[in-house]
Amino acid sequence: MTDASTLLRVPPGLRWSAATAAFQIEGARAADGRGRSIWDDFVDAPGRVRDGSNAEPGPDSYHRSAEDIALLRDLGVDRYRFSISWVRVQPEGRGAASAAGLAYYDRLVDDLLDAGITPFPTLYHWDLPVGLEADGGWLARDTATRFGEYVALVADGIGDRVAHWYTINEPVSTTLQGYGIGELAPGRQLLFDALPTVHHQLLAHGHAVAALRAQGAAAVGIVNNHTLVRPASDSEADRTAAGLYDLLHNRMFADPVLTGEYPDLSAFGMEMPVREGDLALISARPDFYGVNFYNPTTIAAAPVDAPVPFEPVATPRVEHTGFGELWPIDPPSLTALLVDLHTHYGEALPPIIIGENGASFPEPDHATAVIDDERRIAYLAAHIGAVADAVDAGIDVEEYTVWSLLDNFEWADGFTQRFGLVHVDQTTSERTPKASFDWYRNLIASTK
Ligand code: GBH
């Protein structure tokens, strides 16, 4: 890798971070009275996870957080993005906080602060308590209220030392893949009937912002997964399909937060279950806007009898990651996406934080030597360069976060996809930094 050319393209003052999520790294699903989430049900059901794995032991960060923090300190990141497991804090998804569950995060926060790293937790990274799913999950308005109560408990427990919070991670993934097509927990296949889960997650975000601000939080925001959508051709059918996909993937989640209104969703034959006051709560100006970015999406019109009117197709003329042809590598599309957000939302757009960016490539399960992951280095360097281009174009980007610190449990793909800067042997939990870890460390050091 050409470090020198990369260094020229680093935006001055950008903060650096790396991310993980509770269910993907913690393991220890039965420890200390932890309750069950929809992901426990999903991984314990036969045939749901590609390699039959169940997230254990994996990185086992519940028992090895000290190792994670030592790695983060060595990396030199300003912040660490991790997530808090609702069912460790409230095993049943309601009621009093579990002292043992909170104690894990309490210590994690203290240890991060001792290491000079700002803790930046996500309050919800997909692990809904099963009891709430039984009552309708994110289809039920009540789940948003319950989330607000859980957030208040977390803030009571660690809010004296945590000032920066992500509320909900990628509501789009939960809606479309969790409730729409069933690829992620809870594995329901409701297609467009899943859309009320958008509103209830955004409402949950609104309740969380209110609860955290009441407690004195300094910075609160949602983190949406965005993709740059392009039509497969200039045909009217493809352009219409791409517009619908953009609405469904991007605008339906960004507009309410940033403008206080849903876009016109009549094409999907539904209206959001909005009540008076909801949109004011949802659009309380966030302190930052979190953007997770992996790839652009090329959309073609689907055949007339298809259940949905659009179809993702391979993006022409670009390389692909370990996930295959629907996951192209196209860094300029990140610049274009950030510019589009700025153009579309103008003053309503707060400073941007890149909450996740990264890639998985085939790598060995057992590391016998340092993994020379030059394709990951190239991916990260090019995307940081794309952020620099956006900053040059006048976009306010404050922070960049690599997904992920560690190889971890990649949801329905189990342990088959490796996104880490650090290799993890998923049976021994042994951690081995990859070449990309050194590269990121040197990059960060060069900016200090
Ligand atoms: C995010 O999901 C999640 O927040 C996170 O938990 C997850 O582990 C991470 O992305 C990685 O998947 O890197 O080009 O091979 C977003 C949905 C679906 C995006 C798979 C990345 C693979 C693209 N992810 N996709 S690539």
Structure summarized in a few sentences:
Pfam families: Glyco_hydro_1 (PF00232). It comes from Microbacterium ginsengiterrae. By secondary structure, this protein is an alpha/beta fold.
Average pLDDT, all residues: 96
Q: What are the secondary-structure elements, in order, as H or E?
A: HEHHHEHHEEHHEHHEEHHEEEHEHEEEH
Helix content range:
25-40%
Radius of gyration: 20 Å
Strand order across the largest sheet: 3-2-1-12-11-8-6-5-4
Note the main sheet.
9 strands, parallel
CATH classification, class level: Alpha Beta
Q: Would you identify the CATH architecture?
A: Alpha-Beta Barrel
C-alpha end-to-end distance:
21 Å
| Number of DSSP helical runs | 15
Count of β-strands: 14
Quote the beta fraction: 5-15%
CATH superfamily: Glycosidases
Unreliable stretches: 1-6
| Secondary structural class | alpha/beta
Task: State the domain count.
Answer: 1
